[in-house]
């Protein structure tokens, strides 16, 4: 059997191209509509994609001049009406409270029955300043510290802490709840979290390669988003997902013409990602060649309304026919879909309940 | 209760508004009953919110507490512990419902206004205008140990920070004019924010603002700022009426029309088929809520020591408490009370009524609310809203997730028969359900 290529799709605003919303069939209001978001999720799931990612920035940016809704809120909105696709929102580590982030992502993991990921990102100093929080002197170090604190909080409840022992009147076994006592000198977190340990133990932690302090910081990331197809060899540990911006041929226009027209409206900045233009079939052929080279690819559609159609009508069916995609099973956790182990609990006193990559439920 | 004559009814056409308060952490949820489901499972929340929506409830309400309760350094283990993050859970429920309002309790002390305003606005857009924010002020160093800022806020400053926090949030929500965002700049000693929002306005313009806090400062904050007060005055009619009158008076003093702030007390409702069953069921509920272990724990909070070795059916401790003030920082039941005076009063009452320790606690339990047949309750609740004691109720179900079934299946139809409850959702936004005017800053 071929190693599967995990396909992710980012759904944010009109698309990756800053001119997307002008070329989109959606009005600015429709870009934010919950129905449109749900439409993307249902289609992506039906087509066997591994996950949806939700990029975010609390401040306006060139990519998406229309705006953004909060990424965790968008992911959570889809949790109850999907059953197989992974949901991976951005939550920045530069200015967020680790306790809040840990609670939000753990809640998403509960309500999606174990399909949550967390794209932990640093954000520009302007963002921290704009929301009135201190700018971290070393954003990559801060990210590693925040991820460590969040993972500790996710372990602060052992899996079987809720005992509901009618005989003694105890709802929880307090010995299976733990203070985490993380102290970085700049901030500290006491714990335990207010949310019980979630189905995956830890949501899948995703970090952009440029946010990693050391290229092979295994304990920080489960998955690294990279713009470089050679990253897998260099990183060794985590799964590598290649970030690709695509522009595809449509019935009416060739990809290169569309890109030129989009750039003429608003030039796209270079985000250090591979940019791929061509037909849906050619994309499928290129992606097929990437199996074994990377573990997955995250596609950013130039104009979601247009490129997604081509993607779903030609690229994805071709990949499925070539058995390159292995669609997640309904009810499977994101970890088990990705072949990642369920983390053992660092505080567990008894034998760990589940230590292999099976579905823990 | 006496049947009021129509002359007593200041609001003869008023209807009852219902919300459901999923409290999570408390001792009013009977987790030990076989009918009680997981208190964390997503299916639990879905079942409860769907029942409430079927019953045309205005709102589904989540509480918040950002540290697990402890007593004398040990995590309190008798009650439900653990709950999802309110805004995240409500976003999921927004995807599974169409009309019911979604109220997130969020404090103003361990959040940042630009960030929280953005998340609330996102929920408001995703739900099509059904979001609300129950503004609370949680201020203690103990909760603060989970946050960067620690216990940074003096008690006296908390309502001032809350008010500036809400004002900043309102400016974030107001900065979208349908075409562009105006940057928000706030430098007021509490906040130093320069923020350009990215979230558009929802169909109800702003999330509805609830406030929960009972002190004079809290009431003034509510009547200057909020749309709805979530109160504790949901059992005794005279007490509720006095509270609602006070809110009306303060609302007018704040320069707003009299009925501009709705009052929705939290309460519990026990429905049964006849008088004998009502009595029996209410007693059962109370005894399940105040178990022997819970009674000992509550008395232990007042005495400031571990009393779990005592016999709950025996007398109260003969000695005085080892503390002078009931510890207010750790989720204690009677926060801030004079421990010795309270203990002496309790001992005197127990002696006079010949109460055991547990009977005394049952006697003082605050979880009473309403008990009756559907028809009695319908009369009672209609009387409450038509005399102006409240605008409705935020019901804490004593069983989760099935505890709202009899309210929806029996009480709601009885209220509808009396013309005191809507028969359909008239609008789609929470603001419409509650009959609220435009947000304060958009009038
Ligand atoms: C009915 C009611 C419900 C409350 N719910 C919460 C809650 O869920 N989370 C929280 O942190 N505080 C909650 N509070 C606490 C208040 O926000 C406030 O901190 C507290 O009542 C003390 O303020 P006060 O002196 O003005 O009453 C609640 C208060 C009331 C009256």
UniProtKB/TrEMBL annotation, chain A:
Checking Pfam families in the record gives: Bac_luciferase
- The species this protein belongs to is Kineococcus endophyticus
SUPFAM superfamilies tied to this protein: Bacterial luciferase-like
Recite the UniProt keywords alphabetically: Flavoprotein, FMN, Monooxygenase, Oxidoreductase
Q: Does the keyword Flavoprotein apply?
A: yes
Q: Which residues form the Luciferase-like domain?
A: 30-164
From the Swiss-Prot or TrEMBL record, give the protein name: LLM class flavin-dependent oxidoreductase
Source organism superkingdom: Bacteria
| Stretches that traverse the bilayer | none
From TrEMBL, chain B:
Sequence similarity: Belongs to the NtaA/SnaA/DszA monooxygenase family.
Q: What InterPro entries does this protein map onto?
A: Diverse_substr_monoxygenases, Luciferase-like_dom, Luciferase-like_sf, NTA_MOA
Protein's recorded name: NtaA/DmoA family FMN-dependent monooxygenase
PANTHER family, sorted = ALKANESULFONATE MONOOXYGENASE-RELATED, C2H2 FINGER DOMAIN TRANSCRIPTION FACTOR (EUROFUNG)-RELATED
Domain of life where this protein originates: Bacteria
Question: Per the UniProt record, which EC number(s) apply here?
Answer: 1.14.-.-
Q: Which residues form the Luciferase-like domain?
A: 18-390
Q: What are the recorded GO MF terms, alphabetically?
A: monooxygenase activity
What is the originating organism of this protein?
Kineococcus endophyticus
Q: Which UniProt keywords apply?
A: Flavoprotein, FMN, Monooxygenase, Oxidoreductase
């Amino acid at each position: 059997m071929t190693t599967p290529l995990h396909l992710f799709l980012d759904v944010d605003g009109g698309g990756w191209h800053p001119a997307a919303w002008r070329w989109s069939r959606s009005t600015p209001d429709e870009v934010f509509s919950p129905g449109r978001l749900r439409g993307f999720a249902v289609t992506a799931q039906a087509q066997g994609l591994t996950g949806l990612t939700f990029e975010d920035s609390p401040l306006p940016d060139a990519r998406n001049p229309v705006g953004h809704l909060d990424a965790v809120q968008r992911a959570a909105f889809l949790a109850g009406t999907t059953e197989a696709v992974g949901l991976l929102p951005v939550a920045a580590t530069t200015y967020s409270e680790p306790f809040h982030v840990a609670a939000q992502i753990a809640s998403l993991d509960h309500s999606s029955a174990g399909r949550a990921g967390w794209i932990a990102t640093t954000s520009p100093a302007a963002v921290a300043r704009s929301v009135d929080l201190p700018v971290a002197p070393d954003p990559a170090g801060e990210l590693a510290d925040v991820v460590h604190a969040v993972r500790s909080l996710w372990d602060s409840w052992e899996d079987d802490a809720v005992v509901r022992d009618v005989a003694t009147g105890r709802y929880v076994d307090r010995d299976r709840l733990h203070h985490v006592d993380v102290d970085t000198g700049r901030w500290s977190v006491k714990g335990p979290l207010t949310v019980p340990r979630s189905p995956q133990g830890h949501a899948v932690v995703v970090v952009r390669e440029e946010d990693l302090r050391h290229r092979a910081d295994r304990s920080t990331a489960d998955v690294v988003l990279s713009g470089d197809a050679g990253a897998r060899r260099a990183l060794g540990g985590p799964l590598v997902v290649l970030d690709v911006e695509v522009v595809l041929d449509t019935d009416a226009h060739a990809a290169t013409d569309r890109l030129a027209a989009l750039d003429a409206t608003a030039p796209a900045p270079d985000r250090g990602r591979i940019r791929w233009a061509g037909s849906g079939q050619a994309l499928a052929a290129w992606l097929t060649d990437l199996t074994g080279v990377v573990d997955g690819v995250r596609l950013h559609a130039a104009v979601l309304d247009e490129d997604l159609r081509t993607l779903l009508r030609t690229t994805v069916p071709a990949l499925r026919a070539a058995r390159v995609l292995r669609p997640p099973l309904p009810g499977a956790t994101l970890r088990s879909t990705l072949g990642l182990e369920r983390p053992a609990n660092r505080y567990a006193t008894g034998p760990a309940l589940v230590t292999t990559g099976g579905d823990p439920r | 209760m006496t049947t009021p004559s129509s002359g007593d009814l200041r609001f003869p056409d008023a209807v009852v508004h219902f919300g459901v308060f999923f409290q999570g952490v408390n001792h009013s949820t009977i987790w030990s009953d076989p009918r009680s489901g997981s208190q964390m499972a997503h299916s639990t929340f879905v079942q409860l919110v769907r029942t409430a929506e079927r019953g045309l409830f205005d709102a589904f309400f989540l509480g918040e507490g950002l540290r697990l309760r402890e007593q004398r350094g040990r995590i309190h283990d008798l009650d439900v512990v653990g709950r999802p993050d309110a805004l995240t859970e409500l976003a999921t429920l927004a995807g599974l419902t169409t009309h019911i309002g979604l109220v997130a309790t969020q404090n103003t002390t361990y959040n940042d206004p630009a960030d929280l305003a953005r998340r609330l606005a996102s929920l408001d857009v995703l739900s099509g205008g059904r979001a609300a924010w129950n503004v609370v002020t949680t201020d203690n160093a103990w909760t603060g140990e989970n946050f960067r800022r620690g216990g940074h806020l003096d008690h006296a400053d908390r309502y001032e920070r809350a008010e500036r926090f809400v004002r900043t949030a309102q400016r974030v929500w107001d900065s979208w004019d349908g075409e562009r965002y105006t940057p928000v700049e706030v430098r007021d000693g509490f906040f130093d924010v320069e923020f350009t929002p990215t979230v558009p306005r929802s169909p109800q313009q702003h999330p509805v603002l609830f406030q929960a806090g009972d002190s004079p400062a809290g009431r003034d904050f509510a009547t200057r700022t909020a749309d709805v007060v979530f109160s504790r005055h949901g059992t005794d009619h005279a007490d509720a009426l006095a509270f609602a009158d006070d809110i009306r008076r303060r609302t007018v003093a704040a320069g707003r029309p009299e009925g501009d702030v709705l009052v929705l007390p939290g309460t519990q409702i026990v429905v049964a088929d006849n008088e004998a069953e009502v009595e029996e069921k209410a007693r059962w509920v109370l005894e399940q809520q105040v178990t022997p272990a819970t009674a000992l724990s509550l008395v232990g909070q007042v005495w400031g020591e571990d009393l779990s070795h005592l016999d709950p059916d025996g007398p109260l401790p003969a000695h005085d408490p080892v503390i002078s003030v009931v510890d207010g920082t750790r989720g204690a039941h009677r926060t801030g009370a004079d421990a010795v005076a309270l203990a002496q009063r309790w001992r005197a009452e127990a002696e006079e009524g010949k109460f055991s320790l547990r009977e005394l606690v049952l006697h003082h339990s605050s979880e009473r609310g309403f008990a009756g047949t559907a028809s009695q309750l319908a009369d009672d609740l209609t009387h409450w809203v038509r005399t102006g004691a409240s605008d409705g109720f935020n019901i804490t179900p004593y069983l989760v997730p099935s505890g709202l079934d009899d309210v929806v299946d029996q009480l709601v139809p009885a209220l509808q028969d009396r013309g005191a409850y809507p028969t359909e959702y008239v609008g789609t936004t929470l603001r419409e359900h509650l009959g609220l005017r435009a947000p304060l800053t958009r009038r």
